[in-house]
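Journal club prep, notes for RB
We'll compare a predicted complex against what the paper describes. Inputs for the KG4 case:
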Amino acid sequence: MTSTGTTLLAIETSCDDTAAAVYAGGRVASSVVASQRVHAWFGGIVPELASRAHQVLIVPTVDAALAEAGVARDDLTAVAATYGPGLAGSLLVGLSFSKALALGLELPFVGVNHLEGHVYSVFIDEPHPAFPYLCLTVSGGHTQLVLVEEGFRHTTLGRTRDDAAGEAFDKAARLMGLGYPGGPEIDRIAAGGDATFHRFPSPRLAGYDFSFSGIKTSVRYFLEALSPTERDSLLARHLSDLAASFQRAVVDALVGALRDAVRETGVNAVAVVGGVAANSGLRAAAQQTADTDGFSLFVPALPYSVDNAAMIAVTAAFKLAAGHESPLTLQAEPALKL
Ligand code: KG4
Ligand code: ZN
């Protein structure tokens, strides 16, 4: 599907991670992510700070990716970057840098949709699915279930109508007094907790659509119904039970949708990608369902579930092999869809 002669540098700066990767010899040769710590102080991403941090981090991150791959700038045969969706100021840094590099080195440039990057992240390592496969993307900004066919054709089966799954984890964590990003915190604290402690409403709607704002509100109402003393005492004694109950409600809804989609479409290869795919409860439940229902499950290794540039590199290599190049006039598209 891809050419082993391609030596490609890919850059991803759509949100708060400055990432660069090199694809060479038909595989990902390096993947470097510089996470911006500044946002933890504010309990969420501050767009202006993200953009400024990308400007500081982009050159060292690219240099590290090239060095780790043992590739010199002159060895490159193409340059790629995410052009959307994401924060405008953040996207601009990686996109402008990549276009300038492609122009300077007189190389082809490939713009990649970040969501396509997540969908093709299952091709970074072996084994990977064959087409068609069902892909559940669950990240901080997106939650959608698509049927992926060869040739960059995707059919959307369902999506969230409000918050993304990762956003729900982050907001629930904040209500529980946990740090940011909240997903990994809830995951860690939920281990050993009693998931039957509290029954939260299911985020699953009709078909394959979801709504995560209800479950977030229900965490808030549950805690606000208590006096400050009762709340402190409950969080002291039952934080892990509360986290486990929340996680169970989200995981059950996501895995239930996967099971139904496999039955309805007859497609028995399933990918779960995006930051929330790092969740240990989701990984375990999806694998258990795959085993009982007889479908193959593909989940990228942890560094390739959360935002990274390796997924942009692999997607760009597919695009190049299919003859897709982008003009240097390509603009950032903050609201780009899959
Ligand atoms: O894909 P990603 O790195 O960035 C976006 O494109 O949004 O996803 C980030 C999201 C955050 O909301 C974070 O809390 C969530 O993924 N996340 C997790 C876990 N690790 C990251 N959520 C639940 N459990 C985890 N272990
Ligand atoms: Zn992402």
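Talking point for the session: The first strand starts at residue 7 and ends at 12.
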